[in-house]
Amino acid sequence: MRPKIAAGNWKMNGTAAALCELDALSRALPENPPQVVICPPSPLLFRATDAVHGCPIQIGAQDCHTEEAGAFTGDISATMIADTGATHVILGHSERRDTHCETDADVQAKARTAWTSGLTAIICIGESNAQREAGETLDIIGAQLDGSLPDDVTADNTVIAYEPIWAIGTGKVPSIAQITEVHDFIRSRLTTRFGTEIGNALPLLYGGSVKASNATEIFAVENVDGALVGGASLKADDFAPIVAALASA
Ligand SMILES: O=C(CO)COP(=O)(O)O
């Protein structure tokens, strides 16, 4: 049985004042909540882990460097992230692949260093609009999976998030048939490469314009184990109904 995971990616949004949303979210959690992971900007990590102390919300970072320490001005390492009490790190988000030119090989190296520090890697993949229109979606997704996932992936150290780039922050959501097709494809690619035990145990999240209004039908898709949510994770009032939809999926 795979865990259900509601992850929130705050991206470059929020100052210390936003941490009150964690408290509000914890009070709004359903009785048997799914796993909830909030990924605030890195300056908030220490305070965020303090803020969720004693409640079932976990904290994650949005990126880490491939190295554990060294002369990399402006970067943060997996060791530092783990030191804050965070448990997860998002890797290979399309915004980083785009604006920081991250490659699949970079993502794979980052996953290894994340694991070394005991973090769970949330590895993001997804096609652009041009790639989808050219009929290349499954080729792109397959190549990103092959290149971004280390061989020794396990269901405990990795979560995969399918985020079509054209659905991120646009309000455009793929059809249920499109989400089903890609998630089924990812599942079969994983079982082929890692075997049925690991391949069937790895959680798969959908991300891109998830809101309370579309969450229930997305979570009903067989190979969707949760969501990676951007804009609608910033406010507890928006995110709590998504968490509740996942809890009852
Ligand atoms: O990029 C995302 C999460 O990582 C999705 O963002 P939105 O939910 O704002 O579309």
TrEMBL record:
EC id: 5.3.1.1
One GO BP annotation of this record: glycerol catabolic process
Keywords: Cytoplasm, Gluconeogenesis, Glycolysis, Isomerase
Binding site for substrate: 9-11, 169, 209, 230-231
InterPro entries, A to Z: Aldolase_TIM, TIM_sf, TrioseP_Isoase_bac/euk, Triosephosphate_isomerase, Triosephosphate_isomerase_AS
Active-site residues annotated for this sequence: 93 (electrophile), 163 (proton acceptor)
Cross-referenced Gene3D superfamilies: Aldolase class I
GO CC terms of this entry: cytosol
Catalytic reaction equation(s): L-erythrulose 1-phosphate = D-erythrulose 4-phosphate; D-glyceraldehyde 3-phosphate = dihydroxyacetone phosphate
Pfam families associated with the record: TIM (PF00121)
GO MF: triose-phosphate isomerase activity
Protein location: Cytoplasm
Segments passing through the bilayer: none
Annotated pathway: Carbohydrate metabolism; erythritol degradation; Carbohydrate biosynthesis; gluconeogenesis; Carbohydrate degradation; glycolysis; D-glyceraldehyde 3-phosphate from glycerone phosphate: step 1/1
Described purpose of this protein according to its UniProt entry: Involved in the gluconeogenesis. Catalyzes stereospecifically the conversion of dihydroxyacetone phosphate (DHAP) to D-glyceraldehyde-3-phosphate (G3P).
Similarity comment text for this entry: Belongs to the triosephosphate isomerase family.
NCBIfam families attached to this UniProt entry: tim
Subunit structure: Homodimer.
Name used for this protein in its record: Triosephosphate isomerase
Native species: Sulfitobacter delicatus
